[in-house]
Amino acid sequence: MKPSKNGHKPEPSPSPLEPPKDKKAELALLGSILLESEQIDEVALVLGPDDFYWQDHQWIYAAALDLHQAGKAADPVVVFDALNARHPGHRIKAEDLVAAMESVPHGGHARFYADIVRDKSMRRVLIATGTDVVRDGYDPTFDVDDLAGMASDRMLSVLERSTRSEQTSIRDLLIDALYEIGNGKTLGLLSGYPDLDKITNGFQAGNMIVVGARPGMGKTSWAGSIALSIAGRGQPVGFITLEQSKLELAERFLSAQSELGMHHMRGGGLTEREHERIAEAASSLDRLPIYLDEAHHPTPTALEAAARLLVRRHKVEIILIDYLQLVCPEDRRMPREQQVADTSRRIKALAKTLRIPIVVLAQLNREIEKRDLKDRRPRLSDLRESGSLEQDADVVIFIHRPEFYAWEDRPGQAEIVVAKHRNGPRGTVKLHFDKATMRFTEPTPEERLDPQTLMAFDDQS
After folding, report:
1. How large is the average pLDDT for residues 102-112?
2. Would you say residue 350 lies in a domain?
3. Which domain holds residue 48?
4. How far apart are CA 95 and CA 84, in angstroms?
5. Residues 113 and 245 occupy one common structural domain
6. Per-position DSSP letters for 40-96, written without gaps between them
7. If you average pLDDT over residues 219-241, what whole number do you get?
8. Could you give the CA distance from residue 121 to residue 58 in angstroms, rounded to a whole number?
9. What is the CATH number of the domain that holds 89?
10. Is 20 left (phi over 0), alpha (psi -120 to 50) or beta?
11. Residue 138: pLDDT above 80?
C-alpha cells in the first residue's frame, strides 16, 4: 500500500463488520498537537473529542483542548496531570503521550491527520444513522410518514455535523466582489414591480423575505404575481403551498394570466373569447418554469426536504412558501412562540445553505383590527406569535389595502410596505389591486408615488 506524501500509510480496509477507524492517524494527530499546541486551533475547526474512535484518545484530545483554551501549554506532562485529575485510574501512561509525540517529526501535518480522523468519524456516523433507519423501518408500530421525517432529520443532522468552518482573507474575496459589482451581479431576482425593486435591489440569494398580511389582503395572489414575473424571465421558481391545493393555485395562475376573475371562471357561462383567453393563458403558463409542491401538515424537516428537492431536481432560483404558521412543529409540546421561532430559524438557515432567496408568507395578528381605522397600517410588532420572524428576516414586507377595513377608503389601492431591510432602505410602494382577478398592478404615471420620498434607512443589524 502506497504511503501518502506525509508519510502516513493508511490502515488496510476493515472488514464489513468493523467500524472505520485509523489508530495511526489518531496517534499522529495527538502527537502533532502535543508537539505544537497551537495546532489545536486548526484541528478544532473540524474535530471534537467524540470524533476519535478510542476512548483514551478522546480523553487526551479533550484534556489538550481545554488546557489550550485556558491559555496553558498542552505538553505531555501537563496533559498527563489533567488526565489524572479528570479520570482517576485511567490506563494511559506518560510514556504513551511521549511515544505519540515522537511518532511525528513535527506538528505541521496536524490538519492532514485531522482530516483522516474526521473522515473515519463521519463514516461511522453515517453507518450508525443508516442502521437506525433500517431498524426502525422494520418496526410496524412506526407511522411511515413519521419514519420518513425521522430519517430525513437524522441525515440533516449528519450534514450539519459535516459542515466545516472556513476562514478566507478579504483579499481573496475582493476580486469576486468587484467583478459582481462591475457586472451588475449584485442585483437579485426582480419582483416585476420596478418601484419595489428600487428599494430592495431584488430578492438576494441567501435572504429570507417575510411577507406579512391579514387574511384576505391578497398575499397569495401577490406571491403568485412575483412567481409569474420571475419565471417569465426564464428563472425557475418553486412554490410550496401549505394552505391551498396545487390545483387551486394553478387556477389562480390561470386567472391572473388571463385577467379573468376566479369566480367568473368557475361560474360557467364563459364567452367564446373568454375561453380563448383561458387557452392562451394556459399555453403561456405551460412554458414557464414554475414548480408547485403541495405539502400536507409539513414539519420543518419535511419543508427542508421539499426545498432541497426543488433545487436539486428543477434548479429553482427562488422558493415561495404559503404560509409559515401552517408548518407543523417537530415537538407539539413546545410553546407556540418557540415553534414558530424554530421554523423561522430553520428557513433562514435553509436559504443560506441553498444560496437562494426564500419568500415566506405569514399572517399578522388581530391586534391590527383593534386599532383605530386610521392606524391599521401593519407594524413589525404585528408579526404573529413570534418576534423571531422580525429578527431572522432580512426583509419584511407588509401588504396593506385601506379598503379592506373601510370600502370607501382609497378603493383599489394597495400599499407594499418594506418595513425592514437589513442591507438597505425601507419604503412604501403604491400598487393597484383588482378584487375580481386578485391582481396587483402598477399604477399610472400620474398616480405613482416616488418611492425615494418614502425611504428611510434601516438601522437594524
Report:
1. 85
2. yes
3. 23-162
4. 14
5. no
6. HHHHTTT--GGGSSSHHHHHHHHHHHHHHHTT----HHHHHHHHHHHSTT----HHH
7. 89
8. 12
9. 1.10.860.10
10. beta
11. yes
> What pLDDT is recorded for position 156?
67
End-to-end CA distance of the chain: 54
> What is the band of 360 on the pLDDT scale with cuts at 50, 70, 90?
very high
**Same domain as 216, residue 123:** no
Domain boundary among 128, 162, 196: 162
According to the model, what pLDDT value does residue 452 have?
44
Residues 148 and 215 both lie in one domain:
no
Cα 207 → chain centroid? 9
What pLDDT score does 285 carry?
82
Q: Are the C-beta atoms of 290 and 231 separated by less than 8 Å? A: yes
* Cell numbers for 97: 503521550
Evaluate if residue 263 carries a pLDDT over 90: no
For 421-461, the DSSP string reads: ETTSEEEEEEEEEETTTTEEEPPPTTT---GGGG-EE----
Query: What are the grid coordinates assigned to 228, written together?
Result: 409569474
Same domain, yes or no: 131 and 250: no
Out of 68-82, 115-129, 140-154, 413-427, least confident range: 140-154
Radius of gyration of the chain (CA): 29
SS3 169: coil
Q: Of 406, 353, 31, which Cα lies nearest the Cα of 163?
A: 353
Instruction: Kindly state whether residues 345 and 257 are assigned to the same domain.
Output: yes
Please determine, for residue 425, whether its predicted confidence score (pLDDT) is greater than 90. no
